[in-house]
Amino acid sequence: MPATAARDFKVAPPGSLAGQPAARSSYTVIAEHGPDHDKTFEVAISLGDKEYGRAQGKSKKEAQQNAAERALAALAD
To answer: What spatial distance separates the first Cα and last Cα of the chain, rounded to whole Å?
Structure first.
């Protein structure tokens, strides 16, 4: 993968790393901060009933990517 390419952390199902049979992840927008033209979103990722990460981003997609990255890191430990 080229050094400039961004990694899509939502592609790898976090549940598979937790030893769970392809647990379905869900994303919840926890908060939105700032004016409409400059929002920051806070998103939580959950597998089943357990939350595995929270993150922020300038778009919902970016916040989801960041939360997925945190969840994968948490599950890999």
So the answer is: 24
